[in-house]
Design a protein that fits this description.
Helix 4 packs across helix 5. 56% of the residues lie in helices and 13% in strands. The chain is of the alpha/beta class and 199 residues long. The chain has one domain: Rossmann fold.
Length: 199
């Protein structure tokens, strides 16, 4: 089984890339953020640790974690972001390693893992390749405003908290430019898959 790790900044269009790989190449997709969300459900170990660290102010009326509220706190404060990562990431990694083993036993050919902190959490140790999906900052800003309704200040905070393009390029095996039309991106992806002999 080929395990491909996909990373890149917010607003680079990673979801589109994942959908394409699933649709065209029958890839099993695993998104660390979704795994984390499941591990943060009410009354789980992660949930209790997060509430203990950030107080009940981050909870909705139904007792669930308000991810928007929590994101605002951690994107504007480096120390808070590290504290959240220290709670969530080890649990997420353990779950993902289990999923990879399960898919391997099933005979899956392509497993694609997407995580914002793929490099920081050393997923390169379990991935055959790491791909960096990127887009020009102006394109990312436009996407984040349209799709998520983010303002300039919020976007600036997110950009500051993420690695620079050079840092990503230095540690990734391949780079895919998703700044232009998605047809252009698909051509880049098809070319990579051909080189990897995955059809």
């Amino acid at each position: 089984m080929k395990v491909i790790g996909i990373t890149g900044g917010v607003g680079t269009g990673k979801s589109e890339v994942l959908n394409y790989l699933e649709r065209k190449y029958d890839a099993v997709i695993c998104q660390a953020d979704i795994v984390a969300r499941n591990l943060e459900k009410k009354n789980t170990i992660c949930y209790r640790q997060i509430v203990e660290r950030f107080s009940g102010d981050i909870l909705q009326e139904n007792g669930r974690i308000d991810r928007e509220r929590l994101a605002k706190i951690v994107f504007s404060n480096e120390e808070e972001r590290k504290a959240l990562n220290a709670i969530v990431h080890p649990a997420v990694k353990k779950r993902i390693l289990g999923l990879i083993k399960k898919q391997e036993k099933k005979g899956t050919k392509l497993f694609v893992l997407e995580a914002a902190l793929l490099l920081e959490d050393h997923y390169d140790e379990v991935c055959d390749e790491i791909w960096y999906i990127y887009a020009e900052d102006a394109v990312r800003r436009k996407r984040l405003k349209l799709s998520r309704g983010y303002g300039e200040e919020r976007i600036d905070g997110i950009f500051r908290s993420q690695k620079s393009r050079d840092e990503f390029l230095d540690k990734c095996d391949r780079a895919v430019d998703n700044s232009r039309s998605f047809d252009d991106t698909c051509m880049q992806l098809d070319s990579i898959m051909e080189k990897l002999k995955i059809s």
